[in-house]
Amino acid sequence: MNLYKSLSAIYHEMYQSLFDYKQEFNFYHATLQRFSSKEIIEYGCGTGNLAKLFLDSGYHYLGVDLNQEMLNIAKESLPNTNFVVGDLKTFETTKQFDCALITGRTISYLTRNEEVLMSFKNIANNIKDQGVFIFDAIDASVLFDNFDERQNETTIGNYKRISTSKKNLKTGWTWDWNSEYFEKKGNRLESLGKDHSVVRAFTKDEIKLFLTMSGFELLEVIDKETYMWKDHYFIAKKK
User: Fold this and answer.
1) Which of 6, 97, 104, 192 could be stapled to 181 by a disulfide with Cβ–Cβ 3.0 to 4.6 Å?
2) Residue 201 to residues 46, 88, 126, 171: CA-CA distances in angstroms?
3) 38 to each of 20, 35, 92, 98, how far by Cα in Å?
4) What pLDDT is recorded for position 4?
5) What is the DSSP string of the chain?
6) Which tens digit of pLDDT belongs to each residue from 165-201?
7) pTM value surpassing 0.90
8) Rounded to the nearest 5 degrees, what angle is found at the Cα of 224, between the Cα atoms of 98 and 202?
9) β-strand pairing of 127-138 with 97-102
10) d(Cα 50, Cα 36) in Å, to the nearest integer?
11) How far apart are alpha carbons 226 and 229 in whole angstroms?
């Protein structure tokens, strides 16, 4: 996925406006306080937009991302923060945390059932007994009830994204998401690069089953405000 590699700087510039990180942090912060969680591991931490808010609020924090390019940007603004390259399915910690977060709909890139189970079971090993697991996922029931294959255009400052979605359903509630990124140069648009990814949505029942099979109990499902695609937060506890 070029978006998180060669286009990582463009991602950082555009997605700070597309996502309301302060609002998202406020949700996590309120939930973590409910469970008295102070030590957190964030998977899919990206360029560190949430990390700064967690650190400013006194959390003991570890950020994990699959792409070094994203972490390079995060380390520029937060040089003394613990950021490491790691895969959801295999990353092991030397200590267990109070809470694990998968942020930014990172779960969408786990397109096969075995990948979801491997990831959830691995995360269970990285948090304490009765530890909390919080993540967001796109709602397949809403998305595929009226799937939109029209071209979409998004402009942030001098940057523009043109994207299309097309169903494939090969490994679940999945679709192909293709996008091209541009920068405005005078009166013309200059292409910065293209990205292709296969993305997955989930039904609530699927998520509950994956959690149960991985040693978690689903506690709550909460609607999430988002700029694209219906989304939910899932809150679970390690048994």
Assistant:
1) 192
2) 20, 17, 25, 11
3) 22, 9, 19, 7
4) 83
5) -GGGTTTHHHHHHHHHHHS-HHHHHHHHHHHHHHTT--EEEEET-TTSHHHHHHHHTT-EEEEEES-HHHHHHHHHH-TTS-EEE--TTT---SS-EEEEEE-TTGGGG--SHHHHHHHHHHHHHTEEEEEEEEEEEEBHHHHGGG---S-EEEEETTEEEEEEEEE--SSSEEEEEEEEEEEEETTEEEEEEEEEEEEEEB-HHHHHHHHHHTTEEEEEEEEE--SSS-EEEEEEEE-
6) 999 999 999 999 999 999 999 889 999 999 999 999 9
7) yes
8) 85
9) parallel
10) 19
11) 7
* Tens-digit pLDDT profile for residues 189-239: 999 999 999 999 999 999 999 999 999 999 999 999 887 889 999 999 999
Residue at 48: amino acid letter = G
Q: 7, exposed or middle or buried, with CB in 10 Å at 0-12, 13-18, 19+?
A: buried
d(CA 132, CA 52): 21
Two tokens, residue 142: 């809403």
The structure tokens listed for 43 are 């998977």
- Spatial separation of the C-alpha atoms in residues 143 and 230, rounded to whole Å: 7
Nearest to 62 by CA among 89, 37, 82: 82
